[in-house]
Amino acid sequence: MPRPPKRAVLAAGALLVLAVLTVGAFTLGPFGRSLVQPIAFPHDLHAGTSRMDCMYCHYSADRSVDAGLPAAQVCAGCHIPGGQPLVRADKPEVQKLVGYWREQRAIPWVRIYDLPDHVHFPHMRHLHAGLTCQECHGQVQSMKEVTLNQPLRMGWCITCHQQKQVRKDCFVCHY
Amino acid sequence: MSKGLERRQFLKVLGVGSAGAALSGCDRSTAEKLIPYVVPAEEIVPGIATWYRTTCRECPAGCGMSIRTREGRAIKAEGNPLSPISHGRLCARGQASLHGLYNPDRVPRALARRSSGWDRLTWDEAEQRLLAALEANRGRTVFLTDSWPGTMDRLVDDFCAAFGIERVRYESFALEPVRTAHRMLFGTDAVPVHDFSQADVVLSFGADFLETWGSPVDYAHGWVQTHAYHDGVRGKLVWVGPHQTLTGINADQWLPVPPGTEHLVALAIARLLVEQGGAAGAAAAQLADPAIVDRAVTATGVSRPTLEALAREFGNGGRSLAGGPGVGATHAAATQVALAVALLNRVAGNYGRTVFSDRREEATAGTASYAALQQLLTRMAAGQIGALLVHGPNPAYALPAAAAVAAALDQVPFIASFSPYLDETTERAHLLLPDHHFLESWGDHVPRTGVNALVQPVLTPVFETRQTGDVLLAVARRAGAALPNAAATFYHYLRGRWEREGLLANAGGPSFDENWRQALQAGVVLGSAPATSAAVPTPSAGELPALAPEPVTFPGGGGEESYYLVVYPSARFWDGRLANRPWLQELPDPVSKYSWGSWLEINPATAARLGIDNGHKVTVRTAHGEVTLPAFPFPGIRPDTIAIQLGQGHTGFGPYAQHKGVNALQLLAPETEPLSGALLHVQVRATIEHTGDWARPVQASGRLDDAGRDIAQVVSIAGARRADQARGFLSPTGETTAATAAAAPRPAPEGAVPVAAAAEEEPAAHEGGGGHEAAAVHPNDAVVTNLQGTGGWAPATMGAAPQDFPPPGTHYGEYSEQQPRWAMAIDTDRCIGCSACMVACQAENNIPVVGPENVVKGRLMQWLRIERYWPDPANPEQASFLPMLCQHCNNAPCEPVCPVYAAYHTPDGLNAQVYNRCVGTRYCANNCPYKVRYLNYYTFEWPEPLNWQLNPDVTVREKGVMEKCTMCVQRIRDVQNQARLEGRAAMDGEIEPACAQTCPGDAIVFGNAKDPNSRLRRIMESGRSYRVLEPLNTQPAITYLKRVSLGEAPASSSGEH
Description:
The complex is a heterodimer.
Chain A: H1 8-27, H2 43-49, H3 54-57, H4 72-79, H5 92-103, E1 109-110, H6 123-128, H7 133-137, H8 154-163
Chain B: H1 7-25, E1 33-34, E2 50-55, E3 64-70, E4 73-79, H2 92-95, H3 97-101, E5 111-113, E6 118-120, H4 123-136, E7 141-145, H5 151-163, E8 165-169, H6 176-186, E9 191-194, E10 201-204, H7 216-227, E11 236-240, H8 246-249, E12 253-255, H9 262-275, H10 291-300, H11 304-314, E13 320-323, H12 334-347, E14 355-361, H13 370-381, E15 387-391, H14 395-398, H15 402-410, E16 414-417, H16 424-427, E17 431-432, E18 443-445, E19 451-455, H17 468-479, H18 490-500, H19 512-522, E20 524-526, E21 562-568, H20 582-586, E22 600-602, H21 604-610, E23 616-621, E24 626-633, E25 641-645, E26 685-694, E27 714-716, H22 717-726, H23 781-788, E28 822-827, H24 836-844, H25 852-855, E29 865-869, E30 880-884, E31 903-905, E32 911-913, H26 923-927, E33 934-935, E34 962-963, H27 969-981, H28 994-998, E35 1004-1008, H29 1015-1020, E36 1025-1026, E37 1038-1041, E38 1043-1045
Parallel strand pairs in B: 7-8, 7-15, 10-11, 10-13, 11-12, 15-16, 16-17, 21-25, 22-24, 27-38, 28-37
Antiparallel strand pairs in B: 2-3, 3-4, 5-6, 5-17, 9-14, 18-19, 19-20, 21-26, 22-25, 23-24, 23-26, 28-35, 29-30, 31-32, 33-34, 36-37
Helix pairs in contact in B: 4-17, 5-17, 6-12, 9-10, 9-11, 9-12, 13-15
């Protein structure tokens, strides 16, 4: 069913606001700026100091279009084994995790790498082509807070596709 | 362009505007949340589909289904290849089952009626109220259910026994006449299983086996195997009846007999068969009268030579089949027709070869007749029923004399409905106990003898509904009633029965648990092998009742002013139970191409005499009621007959169904056929009155023919043979050569051969035009050269084959000979017009439902449409179907006119539409000669929870974006990704677009045209191949195969005759 058309004035106003927001978002955006996560998860401690493999948590990156996100159970497996807080149990951020786990609530992470819906990025193809996670996501193992390390623009994708001499026509990603 | 604004400046402004629009799509100012699982589901990997096998319950046939789920949501229904009922295919109704699951008009939870509106109940309260009502009305309660073969049937019977409830099983289209005839002959109250794949000649006496009769997907699949042109031969379908349904217009010969005379034709053919040397056997007494033939000739106007020729063809050594009558041919002598049909099959020796009296279509077996339901209504009206439980049937809609039915229901003090939807009967209920949709339920089904199918939930329930089996078990527990084999939940009850009765005894696993797990994975369990043909009973002497070879007379006056009224089932809505599915409402009817409403079928000669044109509003009157609806003149109906389809005209059932079209049952009286008790669907004569009003019809096609454009081409069978012989597919003696049979059935997956060129980096031999004949000089060559001028986009000559892509001299784009060339072949002789592909495409590709107000404006968005043509409308036996979708032209007219390069050609030969580039100029659609590009005039919405069905692999388009068929590029990428992970190339046949996947006739084949060994390539090289509008030099990637005519091809069709 079509949505009834909005009034022209409203539409024009909305467009103006949208334009301002858009320009603002695009110039600032999350690029170079971190967003507040529900738990200040230190990637540097886990992936860096503790040398955990990225795919311990992002478990489907080598077989799915989606990299996957750890269930709270994965965190609890180390931090709350057998229901008792253990590893770094005194830290306030781990306490937050314990809270989520006790209440069996999902942790509402804030998305940093967010491609528009008309882009299809298959993680597994890139991993199998020999790329490392760092080539797109930066040196996550040394980031205390993960930030966007580049603005995720199409030119950035295309440059790499050009260098690697792989298909770069629109229909590879946009459909 | 005004003086103040130069063209370049205008484009700059336009550029900034569209950049802004594009940016808003990438707006990241509001942070999106990522919600992971708390405890991960074992079988779910984000981004990877999980499939569940289950069984379709949209109609009684019970097709096996495979449901694709992503992240816990069902997004696509497909057929289960292991099911002998669906063969991996589904019809349009099965494809649309997801719209039943996610229907916004479902009853969300248990409700109780108050003076106005509904009270919310907890399930505890609801079960308590049901129990109280049952206990108060012990001995005065009736449970009205639909057909439910399997475990649920047992539970309901036991529940009814425990609570003193009388049970009535009713199915609207249960073919009572056919069942009654078989009860008389074999003592079994069921429709026998038919095997259309073994019948070269099929005589249908109103049996619409491609739509609703028996087991439509299995019958359609089997029928096409034999009927479609293969190895130089082709089957024949003869349709006997006053008007043509979808099955009727697929027929090669139509005997337009008056209603109520079909049994005369069947008897006459049987008698002639005996005269020609057939064995009358037990039927000798019935066929003794030599006057049978003359009587048929007099009553029907079919000539004796025609009948004799049919008898000769039909006496085909058990390679023939007669079927009927269908629901739309149920008149006062319907059981006589069924008996005559059985006789005909007996005389022709078809029992045990194409008709199996010892194998039953179980889903309708033993259900109550309409007469039994009528008795129930009489008792209700008399106040004898204290409580009515309803699960399935919708008597307030699906029966004639709606006012009387409503009055009878009003006399029942307590009605509980288990319907998931607020249909007309449920609206009158006092307690609503909504059942799960079948995709949320546990259960089983017995589609036919020896086939046990499982129903399992494919997602967690969408609403707060509860499975009826669980409710019954809980109520019994609450009452302290000990049901036999009672269990905690219906799931345990079901498992218990399967274990107890040894339904998996043949499975061979180490334990029942293991067998059960495997059965759930397979979705269907086949019993022991069906009886051999020798053991199949045939009618024996003394069992055959006397037949009364007299035509039926119809009340309603004679004369020119009244017409036989035929009311027939809908291929889309069944008896109306599926009318609230938006996809089905929008799907154009395969014959009339009307959507979102009803129409009156009328012969063009009659229409012309009354001054009626397509879309004129006419009022149809009988002694029992009147309806006003638009007229659709078409040649497939007798001049003295009119027809209206069932399924529309709901007064409730949610906004998608409500007040769409008319309910033809209002024109009928609640009269029954004397022998079987079936509701008479052909019972009266009606008058027509032209109201003088006209409105643009809500119709996808405005005409019957192709305006001489030669779009759906036909070749005579002799011509097809000659062409195949010329290409070496047939030897001069007519035998298939080793080269191939062009339209071979789909190979099994294990037989697939690797396609060298399918993977992106794999080199492949460029085949050029090898094996393809040099193009003949076409009379339009000069026109084309003229059109091309000197600066054509991609200069190419006529007749280049799809595998020749890219055409030499193409400078635009990055083309590589190492890429595959995706293409398709569509055999129009295998297309039955059922339109399952259209719904499959709409489901797979997130195509919006636009509603009647947009259909009228020609803004239907279905990427694939079935065009149906009568090349010569005066000859109704020559209907053709043509699936029309983006032709992915090598020389695509849409591509050079796009100002923003949104339409372009991919290296693998697809005509791509890039949504994020598109600015909606519509130049491409204007330049497309096939009219297969569709603009989003609005940002269409999917009301919650219909949006749960959206395919996450396909972008949802918004206002101002052009879209069209992508050959399911997401499926191509999916297979390519998977193949790459496994370090291999994609296999031929591994990629199946949604349309090809679901086609019951196997008409659509997708593949790599550059691979000379692909199945596609073999079919493309058939002698029947052609491309639509070839003289335009668009060089489409879709190769069509001409329909084959048993007689001469119509004059308008080009090619060999």
